[in-house]
Amino acid sequence: MSLLDELKNAQKEAMRAKDKIRLGTIRMALASIKQHEIDGRTNPDYVAIDNDGVLAILIKMVKQRKDAASQYETAGRQDLLDVELAEIAILQDFLPKPLNDEEIDNLIVQAISESGASGMKDMGKVMSWLKPKVQGRADMGQLSGKIKVKLNA
């Protein structure tokens, strides 16, 4: 079952359960996906959105909510912070299981050896090797920091 189908089924379940927060969050995600499809149709090279595209949209939505949550926390707006944290939890239900630190370190070592990276100039090679394997399962900013440490060592 595709991720888009999972979202649509979850929307139906949330409607039946009368879970307003979950329903609203899923509707927001589906609206973002639909907007992406509509925007893409103007492009002559348009290809229908696939699981990777849906995953990228969900990751972006989680990142946006994390940024908003940190701003609400700084401003002392607990009511808005709680909404953002609830939305993050709902969106993360549709993301793949996150990698732990050991798995990330093993993948970085494998990426460095397979890409033949020898220093910081090869950072792009390592990132391009890793990105499809960790998409949605690791924070790319933290991953980048760990790669820099390994390449500088």
Q: What keyword list fits this structure?
A:
single chain, 153 residues, mainly alpha, Hypothetical Protein Yqey, Chain: A, domain1, Arc Repressor Mutant, subunit A, 2 domains, 7 helices, 76% helix, globular
Quick summary:
With 153 residues, the chain is an all-alpha fold. It is 76% helix and 0% strand.
Description:
By secondary structure, this protein is an all-alpha fold. It folds into 2 domains: 3-92, Uncharacterised protein YqeY/AIM41, N-terminal domain (Hypothetical Protein Yqey, Chain: A, domain1); 101-152, Arc Repressor Mutant, subunit A (Orthogonal Bundle), CATH 1.10.10.410. Helices cover 76% and strands 0% of the residues. It has 7 helices and no strands. α1 packs antiparallel against α2 (20-41) and α2 crosses α4. The longest helix has 25 residues, at 51-75. The radius of gyration is 18 Å and the shape is globular.
